[in-house]
Amino acid sequence: MTWTDLSANVPGTFIHDLTSNQSTRLFLASSGNEAVYVAHNQDLNWGPYDQGLPDQINIEKLAVAGVPGPNQWLFGASVFGMYRTSASLLMANWQSFGNGLPAFQMVYDLKSSPGGTTLLLSGEAGLFQSSTTVDFWTSLPVPPDALPIQEILYISEDQIMIATPNGIYLTEDGGQTWDQINNTLVDIRTTSVIAAGKDHWLAGTQAGGVHLGTGKIVAVESPDSPASALQIWPNPAQNLVYLSGHYSEFGIWEASDVLGRRQLLSCDWSDDQVVLDVNELDNGIWWIHHDQFNIPIIILR
Fold first, then answer.
1. Distance CA 290, CA 10 (A)
2. Residue 241 and residue 266 in contact, taking contact as beta carbons nearer than 8 Å
3. Is residue 226 one of the residues assigned to a domain?
4. End of a domain among 214, 247, 265?
5. Domain ranges, residue 283
6. How many structural domains comprise the chain?
7. pLDDT of the chain along its 301 residues, tens only?
């Protein structure tokens, strides 16, 4: 793998967070004078996207909610509060979006739900939830020994994993009840958790390295819900990708990346699965689009 420096126009040297709008834009939170930057299409020339933010606000976490277009939002969290702007404008229009959040709390993670309707914020005061359209945050009942939550992983709208100092917790009712799923973790002081393919999860720990968890989590949503579930594997992938779940057999399958490149994918059906040919995709992070789904996948050869 070859890495290229793309930060020539970013004065800050400490990059707090990176995210994208799953189409043609990258967003970056930096320690520089401007808190947030945007890069368009394939040029990767960063420009300020901080219009409306107070000076020296120091955004630490970013999250995009919704599909690319006028109703897609970019959220930024800092110790001084939460802010929101449209993700599709030439210039940002940041506004406060922290009604109900404690003042001056350290921020650990910020994530949008798969359907783009809900936000979760992990801070030193707890775990907080808000609609992406209505500025009103409420606290979720997390076990005290789970704080502070280091990372949030949305599996579906109601299924969420969190990495905590006391192990991995899982909720299947949107955060109302939680169960530990540590199993045989050598070190339960987890710092991160990510999906790593179909029914596979990776957890990072403070001193016990990285652990692979396996096991199927049954969706609790309606099969008609767009957030219910397409499962994709292997991920990372090389040549072929398999998907199962509730999807339309009509329409095209397409892949796009943060550079704005788009590629139609040939597909075939095998049993109850769709098989996609990803040989034409370069290494990197891509999103597979079909019907109302946008599914991230890593190509690594």
1. 35
2. no
3. no
4. 214
5. 231-299
6. 2
7. 567 777 777 766 688 898 887 667 888 888 766 679 888 755 677 888 999 998 877 899 999 998 777 789 999 999 989 999 999 888 999 999 999 999 888 999 999 998 899 999 999 999 999 999 999 999 999 998 999 999 999 988 999 999 999 999 999 999 999 999 876 677 888 999 988 766 777 888 888 788 777 766 643 333 343 434 567 788 778 899 888 876 666 678 888 876 678 889 998 877 678 899 999 998 877 878 886 677 777 787 7
